[in-house]
Amino acid sequence: MAEALDALIFDFVEWVAKEPRSYAEALDAWRTSCPRLTVWEEATNRQLVRREAKRDRDVYIVVTPWVRNF
Fold this sequence. Notes:
It is a single chain. Strands 1-3-2 form a three-stranded antiparallel β-sheet. It has helices spanning about 1-20, 25-30, 35-45, 65-70, and strands spanning about 20, 50-55, 60-65. It has one domain (about 1-70): Winged helix-like DNA-binding domain superfamily/Winged helix DNA-binding domain (Arc Repressor Mutant, subunit A). About 55% of the residues lie in helices and about 15% in strands. The termini are far apart. The model has no long low-confidence stretch (mean pLDDT about 80). The protein has four helices and three strands, in the order αβααββα. It is α+β, with helices and mostly antiparallel strands and about 70 residues long. Helix 1 (about 1-20) packs across helix 3.
């Protein structure tokens, strides 16, 4: 189970790393992934992604600087 979750986390982080994704876009794209919330929570807990408010007041999901260094 942990390997499957790690693979989903990697896929999620890789997708976000291509460009910042709006929160709504990320929810829409990942709504069929199971378990979606665990992927998001784990990626956040591992400090791989974070929510960031932009000037347009929308919330985006972005990779952390830690991920960008790899």
